[in-house]
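Dear colleague,

Thank you for sharing your sequence with our group. We've completed the structure prediction you requested, and as agreed, I am returning the results in plain text so they can be pasted directly into your records. Please verify that the sequence below matches your submission; if there's any discrepancy, let me know and we will rerun it promptly.
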Amino acid sequence: MKIFARKAFSLIEVNVAILILSSGVIALISLFALGFRENRQSREDVASAAYADAVISRIVMAATATNLKWSAFNAIKSYPSDKGWSSYYGSNGRSLENCEDIAKSAFSKIMEEIENASESGTGVSHAWPTEAKAGLNASGLVVVHEPNSARLKIAFRAGRHTHELLTQPIYYTEARFQGDPTK
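Please find the predicted structure tokens below.
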């Protein structure tokens, strides 16, 4: 009598194959989570850049108007204060809850000063640009003007939450005086 031996997988081989397959599936699932997080961060970065462009471009358009008087331009102060980004910190070292209000106040003050420095108005809207906000609930604006300097240094950052505002990238530009320096 002949005994036919069947070729088959042992239980250990099946378990090793399941282990390898399951580790691959777990790795793929973790990549999906990473992809979703990176996608969200990318959307926030684009929204932050658009928001910064909307705010900064209004200040630059107003500050580079050719009908500005040098004497008035030279008198423009730094905003929100001479402390710069420190204005957005509390005594405990954390971001203040009213960062957006501080930024809006700085924006309206600098736009008002630039408007007062022009001979016939700048024609630039003084309204805080909310059209590009896109879910960003915290923003910070710092405008630095050194005495007798022909440039304004403008920095902006935005984030979803006030506690992460000061960890967001800074968008920075400078606006140079374009008016008549003899006035």
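Summary note from our side: DSSP finds three helices and three strands in the chain.

Kind regards,
the structure core
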